[in-house]
Each structure stands twice: as structure tokens, then as C-alpha cells.
Design a protein that fits this description.
Two copies of one chain form a homodimer. The first copy, chain A, is an alpha+beta fold. Chain A folds into three domains: 2-116, DNA Polymerase III, Chain A, domain 2; 128-248, Roll (DNA Polymerase III, Chain A, domain 2), CATH 3.10.150.10; 251-362, DNA Polymerase III, subunit A, domain 2 (DNA Polymerase III, Chain A, domain 2), CATH 3.10.150.10. The first copy, chain A, is built from seven helices and 27 strands. The first copy, chain A, has helices at residues 7-17, 71-80, 133-141, 198-207, 246-249, 262-275, 323-331, and strands spanning 2-5, 32-38, 41-47, 51-57, 60-63, 65-70, 88-92, 98-102, 105-109, 112-113, 128-132, 158-164, 167-173, 177-184, 191-197, 215-220, 224-229, 232-237, 256-261, 284-289, 292-299, 302-309, 311-314, 317-321, 337-342, 349-352, 358-362. Chain A has a nine-stranded antiparallel sheet with strand order 10-6-2-3-4-18-17-16-11. In chain A, a hairpin with a 5-residue loop joins strand 7 and strand 8 (98-102). In chain A, helix 1 runs antiparallel to helix 2 and helix 3 crosses helix 4. The radius of gyration of chain A is 25 Å and the shape is elongated. The N and C termini of chain A lie far apart (72 Å). The relative contact order of chain A is 0.11. Strand 9 (105-109) of chain A pairs antiparallel with strand 22 of chain B.
Chain lengths: 369, 369
């Protein structure tokens, strides 16, 4: 194999595929990127056991071939090459010894037979939805923080995507809170469901551009979803099983509704977080009465009190939360004001806008005044 | 005690003194900042066992007093207050319970009697030197990387400052390399010597501005140095003993001199670093002949070869180094071209400019071709 690249294009492609390289593995082939040059096309692939990324990169094929080399080492080398107008040449011999060369710098690293490499599975492309990359990125980032990525419950470590006609819903939950983002699609795509592993969908969302014009297409099969965008394809396994019955968990009834400045509320909650270390489980207490929220937090470090004007509908209420969960939700809302719906001190609270573009539910905690 | 501050001014003062707060200590008073309000002046002090910082901050004294409160908690709280036009009020009662208030947010945290607090020692101010803050910052940052901060040899963990008439010399070394910065002072200050603990001088250098007009004055006593700048005073203990005899270690003779582009040489060395993990002690080998440096590095990950034009004076030479030491020195030189002086493969190499503003010596290592 002998290929010639522009440095920046090659580096971009490597930066894309290395997102599928596991940080720890005992199987060396999983640490490799596959270079495949055939039929006037150069294709780079990385394949974790959970998800794989394949991308097409421009370059000149002097000799066709197939080669697997250590992905992160290759990325590191290419990053440090001179580049500019000088091409990067990658060449391998029959023992897969690989030479990477640019100007006067020459690296030689061992490679492996590309035949050892596991290809991305074929996915049937009949059942799909399409949205802007920006929409996908936002919907993922504004829900995934509520997933329990390190929990023993695999289902809670996933992002649930549900399509129903023109509506797509993204859901993540961890047993203490639920985050929902609703997205309106451009057309009716029928129905689909997928529980995507949290780490995978996080990595994918980082590859999405902020450009609202650029599309990503999601193809659904039984155990996998394929993401196709730009010149890149990603296939991820799904978490098997039936996701939690969200609609049964979510009740839209309430007795008290409070509308408040999001930034001021967030500031007050962040002040409570100063005093409350993650481990000591102290709550922030909200005392809602007469159009005012009084916040109080108390721990071994000291106490904090604060008051905040609000628009109150319904009866007075005292309710307590883990301040980190409140802060996480408030940070992920873009609106200037936020509405908070409550029933009593033991029932779930939720933030929600009129268009129901987002829905953040948080369970209250016990407290002593 | 009752004081009123502008938030940003108070936060700046806290950011300054908290640099002397140790990260781990079993003595709670060492984690405190002392507020002292008397004679129309508010003074904040933090005092590690090794060094202490005292700064004066503007504010209104409603009631004079003295109070010690947990420094990092106080800093965290003040950082999160609203500020703007609203004053920050700090008030303590006879039990040292402290209220920190701004707008509607009120924190209460326990404080301590300021009398428990250890003041900065008095330093005789007759023996001093003065330089710009920028000069001190640069001289420290361009040497301290060569000190062995975690070594059991305390002397190697220090920065040696030596004043001789109009010359000041900053030196750090770790047994494998020596870094020297020479600074010309504005007048003849006589002579002085001090071995300043590395962590302390690093923290101090971070408090120096990049402004060449702002001065810092260093007062020398037998076991301490006092730094005075802006409205801040820092006192640090010194490492006791006689520093290494640098002049005996440094020989300016050489057999081969090579002049080379600093950035290109650094790029080549950084490429070698990719292949050489810290632990495996593989060198980069420089083969200098006929106006060319050939670099080679080899490890379990692969090999790298490169060549670089240079201006060579003296005989050909093959010599090997830890590439990290070469990279550290090259990164801390500002000039476009750099001169490298060598005698043979077993004798120290040094980088040095004509004005001798810097001098970086590195010991070579053994190699097999």
C-alpha cells in the first residue's frame, strides 16, 4: 500500500475515527485504525466492540492495499508532522512495516494485516430519520447528563430515542431525575425506538457540527443504529430490552407553578452547592410563599440563605432537592425564565416550557428545617 | 468586625493570598485567611509554614476587628456572589460566627479568633534588590522546570538566586541538567544569595504581572526573603545550606558548535518524544556531520529518523540525549536560532546565546546505534 495525503485532511479523518478507539483493551487490533485503499477511494475505520466509525478521506493512491496500524500513535505522528504544502506519505511493505513520511521526518512503525480487522456490520437502510447535526448534538447534550453512565443498571446508562411520526424524543434518566428533549422532524418517519449506549452517543454528538444546514441520517435496524453524515458512517450496537415506561413516570398535573429568572435561580442554587459536598447528601430547601422563593442550605461548612422573587400560581410549598440536579437542569435550559411545577414535598417536580421542547423531572428529597 | 467591599477587589485579594494555603494540612488555622481591620486599613494574610502572603484591600471599616476564616471556602463564596454595584459585607460576632452577605444571599460560616494566627515574620529591609515583575516571572519560569521538585534532595527542589553587583543569576538543576538565567539589574546592589523553595517561587511568579513597568523588591535576611510588590508582601523561608558550585560544573569550552533553527529542531525532538515513553529511557541520537544533524529515535513503538540543516563549526560528533530535556530547554528559548556547544559524547552539552542571558546544560546519555 502507498498513499499520499494532505496533512490536515488526514489528521481530521484520524481525529474522527479515533473516537471509537477504546481507552483500555487487551485486544491490540481494537487499538488499530484500518486504512483501505481501493477503487479510487481511501477509507479509514476504527471499530470498538460497541461502535465503529468509518470515514472517507481524500488522497492519492499510488498502490492499493489494506493495513491496520495503532490508531493513537498514528494520530500523534501525523499531528506532529510538518504538513503545509508537503504531502504525508504512508507506505507499507509485505510484512506490514509502515513508513510515515513528511519532508525530512520518517517514522517506521509495525502494522498488521488488515484482514484481521472486523468490518462494520451491514445495516439495512430502509428505515431512517433525518435531522440537522446541530439538533442531534443539542438534544444529546441536553439529556445525557441525566443518564447514570457508571451504574450497574445498563438501561440507565443509555439514551432512549423514540420516533413517532414527526416527533422525536430523547430521554435519559438515573433513578433520581429524568431529562427529555422533544424534537420536531421535517416529515413523518413512522415509528422507531433505540436505546443507545451513553458513551457512544456522547462521542457521536461531539462529531456533529454546530451548522444547522448539515444533516445526519439515522438508520434503524433491530440491534443497531447507523449514523451517516458528511463522509462518515457510525454504527453502534443498542442496549437490548424494553426502556422504562416514561409516560407513566411523567405526570403533568401540579398544584404549584412558579415562574422565575433562570439565571438568578441558577446562581442561588450554585451558591448552595458551595456548602454541600457531593458525599454528604444535604439538600437545598425551597420555601415558596407569597411570590417569593426562600432558599436555604446547611452543612458542616456553614449555612446559606437567599430569597428570590417569583411569579407564583397555586398554594405555598416547602420542598427540598439535591442542588446539583437543579443546577444541571437549569444550565441546560436556554430560556431567560423557567417554569417549575410541583404537587407536594414528596412528588416529583418538573421544569417544562410551553412548547414542551424540554422536560426535566427531579425527585425531591427529605429534609429537616 | 464589620467590613464592606467591592466584590472584585475582595476576590482579587483572596485569589492572591490563597496561593499560600497548603492543599493538605491537619492544622485548620493554616487553611484560614486572616482579616484584620484597624487604622483605616484592611489586611488579608495567609500563612503556610513555608511562606506567607499579606495584601491590603480597599473597603469600608464599619467595625474594626480580627478574624480567621477558611480561605478557600471564603474565596468560593465571594466568587459566587452577585457583586456589581452591590457591596459584599463581612461581619463576625463575638463567637467568630461570620456572615457574608451580598444582595439577598446570606452565608453563615464558623470563624476563628484571629489571635491564633501566626503573623508573617518581621524582616530587616536594609538589604534588597529591585527588578520588574516581568523580569522575575520570566527568569523563574525559564529555570524552574529544571528543578527536581519531588526529589529527596531538598537543595535540588530549590531555585538558587545569586546577586553580584549589577548581575542576578537564577539557577535550577536536577542532576541531569542545569538551567541558568542571567539578568542585568538597574544598579549595583552588592551581593546576596538565596535558595528559594521551588513551589513557593512558582506561586510567587504566578502573581507577577506581565507589565514591565511594575516593580518587585526583594529583601534578603539570613533565612528568609521578602517580596514586596503592589500592595502585597510575601515572606518565604529559604532552603538552608550551601548551593552546588555551579561555576565548577559549567565549562564553556567546546569542540563542536552547531547553530540551528530553534523551531525546526524542537519539532524534530518532539517527534522523537512520541515514540519514547517517560519510563523506557530511550534516547534521541544526534549524528552531526557535514552541516547536518541526523536525528534518530527507536523504541518498542517504532523508529523515527529526520535530518536538519545546521551551521557546524568543529568536528563531527554523535551524541544522545533524553529528548524531553532537549524539548524543555528549546521551548524556553525565545530566539529563532539556537547555538549548541559540545565536546564529546560523554561531556555535557549546553545551549547558550552570545549575551549569555540563558545557559541550559544537559548531560548526554549512553546509546547504541
Amino acid at each position: 500500500m502507498k498513499l499520499e495525503f494532505n496533512k490536515d485532511q488526514l489528521l481530521n479523518a484520524l481525529n474522527t475515527v479515533t473516537r471509537a478507539i477504546p481507552t483500555r483493551t487487551t485486544n491490540p487490533i481494537l487499538e488499530c485504525v484500518l486504512f483501505e485503499a481501493a477503487d479510487h477511494e481511501i477509507r479509514l475505520t476504527a471499530n470498538d466492540t460497541e461502535f465503529g466509525i468509518e470515514t472517507v478521506v481524500d488522497g492519492t493512491i499510488a498502490e492499493e492495499g489494506k493495513l491496520a496500524i495503532e490508531a493513537k500513535l498514528c494520530q500523534e505522528i501525523v499531528r506532529k508532522l510538518e504538513g503545509g504544502d508537503s504531502p504525508v506519505v504512508i507506505e507499507s511493505d509485505e510484512t506490514f512495516l509502515t513508513t510515515i513520511r513528511c519532508e525530512d521526518a520518517v517514522f517506521k512503525i509495525p502494522g498488521r494485516d488488515g484482514e484481521e480487522f472486523a468490518y462494520l456490520p451491514e445495516i439495512d437502510r430502509s428505515h431512517y430519520i433525518s435531522m440537522s447535526q446541530f439538533t442531534l448534538k443539542q438534544a444529546v447534550q441536553k439529556t445525557i447528563f441525566s443518564a447514570a453512565l457508571n451504574d450497574s443498571n445498563r438501561m440507565m446508562g443509555g439514551l432512549f430515542l423514540e420516533v413517532n411520526g414527526e416527533k422525536a424524543r430523547f430521554v435519559a434518566l438515573d433513578g433520581h431525575r429524568i431529562a427529555v428533549q422533544n424534537v420536531t422532524l421535517r416529515e413523518d418517519y413512522g415509528s422507531a425506538k433505540a436505546i443507545i449506549p451513553g458513551r457512544t452517543i456522547s462521542e457521536i454528538s461531539k462529531l456533529m457540527t454546530d451548522d444547522n444546514e448539515k444533516e445526519v441520517v439515522l438508520f434503524f435496524s433491530e440491534n443497531q443504529v447507523l449514523f451517516s453524515f458528511d463522509r462518515t458512517v457510525i454504527v453502534t450496537r443498542l442496549i437490548e430490552g424494553e426502556y422504562f415506561n416514561i409516560d407513566r413516570m411523567i405526570s403533568k398535573s401540579y398544584e404549584t407553578k412558579v415562574t422565575v429568572s433562570r439565571s438568578r435561580f441558577l446562581s442561588d442554587v450554585e451558591r448552595a452547592v458551595i456548602l454541600i459536598k457531593e458525599s454528604d447528601h444535604k439538600p437545598v430547601i425551597l420555601d415558596i410563599q407569597s411570590g417569593e422563593i426562600r432558599l436555604q442550605a446547611k452543612s458542616a461548612f456553614g449555612s446559606m440563605n437567599s430569597r428570590l422573587q417569583c411569579e407564583q400560581a397555586g398554594r405555598d410549598l416547602m420542598i427540598a432537592f439535591n442542588p446539583r440536579y437543579l443546577a444541571d437542569a437549569l444550565r441546560n435550559i436556554d430560556d431567560d425564565t423557567v417554569a417549575m411545577y410541583m404537587t407536594n414535598a414528596r412528588a416529583p417536580m418538573y421544569f417544562c416550557d410551553d412548547r414542551e421542547s424540554y422536560f426535566y423531572l427531579i425527585l425531591p428529597v427529605n429534609f429537616v428545617v
